[in-house]
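User: Show me a protein chain along with its predicted structure.
Assistant: Here is one chain, sequence first, then structure tokens.
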Amino acid sequence: MARGQLVLMVVFVGLAVAAAAASGKHSRGKSARLQLLPATPGASLAERARDDRRRHAYISSRLAAARRRRAAETPLSTPGAVAASAFAMPLSSGAYTGTGQYFVRFRVGTPAQPFVLIADTGSDLTWVKCRGPPPRVFRPGDSKTWSPIPCSSEMCQSSVPFSLANCSSSTATCSYDYRYNDNSAARGVVGTESATVALSGDRSDRKAKLEGVVLGCTTAYDGQGFEVSDGVLSLGYSNISFVSRATSRFGGCFSYCLVDHLAPRNATSYLTFGPDPDSASSSASSSSSRTPLLLDGRVRPFYAVTVDSISVDGEALGIPSEVWDVGSNGGTIIDSGTSLTILATPAYKAVVAALTKQLAGLPRVSLDPFDYCYNWTARGDGDLAVPRLAVQFAGSARLEPPAKSYVIDAAPGVKCIGVQEGAWPGVSVIGNILQQEHLWEFDLTNRWLRFRQTRCTQ
């Protein structure tokens, strides 16, 4: 599920941010925050691009499976306002480990143990390593709150992804065998546990127990990405994901703000569950936009939105409407686990044609796996205006990312168009680089995605 070597959308919770507890005082109820640290440019963009393509293939396969089974599914329950409190987790970028993901610190078990997980909006099962060198190994036998889920249970049979249906006995524990497109894998058993979260508010030392969290205990894994993390934090839309459990108790929404992916590791932002005074829905955020979230079985566990058009320098591009239509095997998802944005072929060709037209005066450079790279030092002393890219969503919401989010630094003196081509028919993916320096709020109760531009740092 890692972007670096794993295809599954995953969120790495960084132990490096173990000391970064959410602290700020908010006048409007209690809240806690997870600190997000951006990835440093330790991993090559070529490696990230290849991983993004493998992840895109995984996303496409999951969506195809979702379309086949959606007729038999019932809508998920997303309880509305519960308590006005919230909590947050500090996140850090995993680029220094060779991935393009963000990590989050996660405390689970009784007594609570800290782990570094991949934060992934495309994952529906949270899991941690249960075998390996201490101390970053979860020991179910040492936790007072671990409860195995039976293999014969309805949850195991219908909700746990990649579950193994062949129960060895009526008392056997539910097991899973995740297989990723890059040949990595994770295998283990599933149970429920308690997670410890730090509430923010008038007292920054307040803790709360979030019980009934579905947790995978991974006893065997393959893949380089799992060597540098302790597992995955599931932020996908699923009845067993961590998001489902957390939002059912904390306000029905979650939000995150991604700092520049090349910012120093000490630049921080947060993943917040519940109402946040700094969220895009805040009354002070008059500049925020909102667009409907598509949460039905066609896209589960991913978060889809409807794109109306893409424009370059104010001119709408001629992209067929079917490209943005989930019902036509198209559509667009917002994904924290993909680094580079991936556009289905008709959209990709239109976008790069418009961008390259304005950059035609610069010498081309070959840099695998990018299609369009330029020698930026050939500009001389003058500034070259990068064409303005804008994504128009349904509901008049407009994303106007900074130029550095789509014409990106790929090597010293070299910039590349940071968009990849995806298959058509197929889904388009808005990756975390295009999302950077924006606050994104997923309102699951009311089915809105809100966003606004911000520096994200405190």
